[in-house]
Design goal:
The structure is a single chain. This protein is globular. It has 16 helices and 2 strands. It has one domain. It has a two-stranded antiparallel sheet. The two termini are about 40 Å apart. Helices cover about 65% and strands about 0% of the residues. It is mainly α.
Length: about 400
C-alpha cells in the first residue's frame, strides 16, 4: 500500500525521496524492520491475551520425561498468529500487491495458518487430539493443487522463455530440468499429463516440508531459528533470480518480477527473529501448529516459485534429518516387534530402538545434552547448509 502511495507522490508531485520506494532493497529493509518491531511491540500484550484471557496453553506430554516438560505445559501457545500477522502486514505495506508471486505467498500464509489454527483450537476444546492428520494433509494437498495450477496456467508467471515446468538442479553446470521431459518421451499423448505430473510434484513438496517443519517444532527456539535462516537464504535467491544483471552473471534462471518476493521473505525473517525473542529457552510462548505448519508451507511454496525446490533437501537439511529420524525409528521398532513377536501394546525396549526418542532433537535431549545447546547447534548447522545452498549458484 505504501508503495502505491509513494509511487503516486513521486509521479504526481515529484515528492522528495518518494522514488526510493522503487528499490526492492529499500522496501525489503523496511519490511524486515516493520515485522521485527511488530513482534517486539506486540509480543508481551499478545502473550497476556492468549494466555490469560483465552487460556490457550500448550498440551505438552509430561509423561515422556523431557527436560522442563511440566513448566512448558503452562506456556501460552498459538503464537503463530502473531508471526503470520507480522509477515502479512509488512508485505501489504511495502510489496507490489498486483504481483502474482506475492499474491500466492499471501494466500499460502493465510490458508495454512487457518489449518494450523483449527488444529490448535481443537486441541484446546478436545484435549490433545486436535485436527486429525488426514485433514491437515487435505489442506496441504489443496494448497499444492492451487499453486501448481497457477504456475502452469497463470499468464503473469514466466521464466524468461523457459517452460513453466522448468526447475533448477543444484551442483549441475547446465542446471535446468524440465519436468515435462520426464514423461513426454513416452509419446504425444503424454503431453496432456504434464500438468498432472507438475501438480503432483508441487503437492509432494508442500506436504513434506510443511509436516517436517511441524515435526521440528519440539523444543524452544529450534523451529523459529531454523526457519529464519532458511527464509534469509530464500530471500537472497529470489532477489538474484529477479535481477537480470546478477542472474546473467551467475548464469541462473532469470524470472521477471520474482524479485518482489524479497519483500515477503524479509518480512518472514523479521517475524521469525522477532518471535525468537520470546521463544528462546525458557519460552514465553509457542507458535503452535498455526505457526509451524504455515512456516513449512511458506518455505516450500516460496522455493517452488523461484524454481529452487530441488535445493530444499540441502537448504532444509534440518527438516530432512528430523523427518528421517521418525521414519527410521518407526521402521526399526516395527522390525524389532515383528522379529521378537512382541504382544500388542508392549513397547520396544529403549536400548533396542534406533534412537532414544524422535524427532531427533529429543534423542539428544535424552542423552543429557541441554536443550539450549541442542537448539544452538541445530541453528549453526542450518546456517552452514544455507551458505552451501547459496554457494551452489557458482559451485557446479
Amino acid at each position: 500500500m505504501l508503495y502505491y502511495l509513494f509511487d503516486w507522490l513521486d509521479k504526481a508531485f515529484d515528492f522528495p525521496g518518494a522514488g526510493v520506494f522503487q528499490y526492492i532493497s529499500f522496501r525489503a529493509a523496511c519490511s524486515t524492520i516493520t515485522s521485527l518491531l511488530m513482534m517486539l511491540l506486540f509480543g508481551k500484550p499478545f502473550i497476556r491475551w492468549i494466555g490469560n484471557r483465552l487460556d490457550m496453553h500448550d498440551t505438552v506430554r509430561t509423561e515422556l520425561g523431557l527436560e522442563g516438560a511440566a513448566q512448558k505445559a503452562k506456556t501460552p501457545t498459538m503464537g503463530g498468529l502473531l508471526i503470520l500477522a507480522a509477515i502479512i502486514v509488512p508485505t501489504l505495506l511495502f510489496a507490489k500487491l498486483d504481483n502474482i508471486y506475492v499474491q500466492i505467498m499471501l494466500g499460502t500464509t493465510v490458508w495454512l495458518g487457518m489449518v494450523g489454527f483449527l488444529d490448535d483450537y481443537l486441541k484446546k476444546t478436545r484435549g490433545k487430539a486436535g485436527l486429525p492428520g488426514r485433514y491437515k494433509v487435505i489442506g496441504q494437498v489443496l494448497l499444492g493443487l492451487v499453486v501448481g495450477l497457477l504456475i502452469m496456467y497463470h499468464p503473469d508467471i514466466a521464466t524468461s522463455g523457459l517452460s513453466r515446468t522448468t526447475t533448477t538442479i543444484p551442483f549441475m553446470k547446465n542446471n535446468e530440468l524440465d519436468y515435462a521431459k520426464l514423461i513426454t518421451w513416452m509419446g504425444p499423448w503424454a503431453k496432456d499429463l504434464v500438468w498432472l505430473l507438475y501438480v503432483v510434484i508441487v503437492i509432494l513438496v508442500v506436504t513434506a516440508v510443511s509436516n517436517a517443519s511441524n515435526l521440528t517444532d519440539g523444543i524452544d527456539g529450534i523451529a523459529t531459528g531454523v526457519a529464519a535462516v532458511n527464509g534469509g537464504a530464500l530471500a537472497i535467491l529470489a532477489w538474484l533470480s529477479g535481477n537480470v544483471i546478477f542472474s546473467n552473471y551467475l548464469n541462473i534462471m532469470y524470472m521477471p518480477n520474482i524479485g518482489e518476493l524479497a519483500i515477503f521473505s524479509t518480512a518472514f525473517v523479521g517475524a521469525t527473529l522477532g518471535f525468537l525473542w520470546f521463544n528462546t529457552h525458557p519460552a514465553e510462548m509457542f507458535m503452535g501448529d498455526t505457526g509451524s505448519l504455515a512456516i513449512g508451507g511458506i518455505i516450500a511454496v516460496f522455493a517452488i516459485l523461484i524454481r529452487k525446490e530441488l535445493l530444499l533437501p540441502l537448504l532444509c537439511g534440518i527438516y530432512l534429518i528430523e523427518d528421517l529420524s521418525v521414519i527410521i525409528q518407526t521402521a526399526g521398532c516395527k522390525i524389532y516387534r515383528r522379529r521378537n513377536k512382541l504382544p500388542v501394546g508392549q513397547p520396544v525396549p529403549v536400548e533396542k530402538r534406533p534412537f532414544l526418542m524422535t524427532p531427533i532433537h529429543h534423542h539428544y535431549q535424552k542423552k543429557g545434552i541441554p536443550e539450549q545447546k541442542v537448539v544452538q547447534r541445530f541453528i549453526i548447522v542450518a546456517i552452514l547448509l544455507a551458505i552451501l545452498s547459496i554457494v551452489t549458484l557458482k559451485l557446479r
